[in-house]
Amino acid sequence: MGSQWARDKVYTRAMKAGYRSRAAYKLLEVQERNEIIRPDDNVVDLGAAPGSWLQVLRELTDGKIVGVDVNPIAPIEGVTTIVGDFTESEVQERICADLEVVNVVVSDASPKLSGQKSYDQARAVALGEEALAFACNVLKPGGNLVIKSFQGELFADLMNEIKEHFRSVRGYRTKASRKGSAETYIIAKNFIG
């Protein structure tokens, strides 16, 4: 039996366009509305599997792209992939060895969902905090960050933490997100450094 979401319009459109998942349209919309990626930016994608954001990033920039995930990612021409946990120092060292300068960090990473909203939201916020810590270690001043999170009681705390490091921070919900989802992207621009 397939997923209840397997035949929605965004999924079907993504498959026809050759993207690996519907998430490609989320990043395309974030980019269209917020202009986070410039044509020569080097980008790190955290939680990159199965690779649809990497496909979009390859279309948006001629810079270097590194995708990191605990799961293997099928190769994409012109993209470096690393299997590992981005919170581990040896994985961060490998990323920095591939990229002298990091202009943008994106993360569509999500914890495995349990169905218990407050627990899942807390885990998503913790993952967002780890992505923020990573970005603060590697981003050049003026760089941008996109993190997926979930609306809930801890969401404002994460937003406030990000505001300490970036000049512009806002929440953004994409049209490609499933109806009823608490998924929200945090768009942070102009890293203070």
TrEMBL record:
> Which residues take part in binding S-adenosyl-L-methionine?
G51, W53, D69, D85, D108
Per UniProt, subcellular location reads as: Cytoplasm
rRNA processing as a keyword of this entry, yes or no, is: yes
Q: Which UniProt keywords apply?
A: Cytoplasm, Methyltransferase, rRNA processing, S-adenosyl-L-methionine, Transferase
Q: Which reactions does this protein catalyse?
A: uridine(2552) in 23S rRNA + S-adenosyl-L-methionine = 2'-O-methyluridine(2552) in 23S rRNA + S-adenosyl-L-homocysteine + H(+)
Q: What class of enzyme is it?
A: transferase
Q: Name one GO biological process term.
A: methylation
List its EC numbers: 2.1.1.166
| Catalytic residues as annotated in Swiss-Prot or TrEMBL | K148 (proton acceptor)
Q: Where is the Ribosomal RNA methyltransferase FtsJ domain?
A: 19-191
What the protein does comes down to: Specifically methylates the uridine in position 2552 of 23S rRNA at the 2'-O position of the ribose in the fully assembled 50S ribosomal subunit.
Family indicated by similarity: Belongs to the class I-like SAM-binding methyltransferase superfamily. RNA methyltransferase RlmE family.
Q: What is this protein called?
A: Ribosomal RNA large subunit methyltransferase E
* Organism, scientific name: Methanoculleus frigidifontis
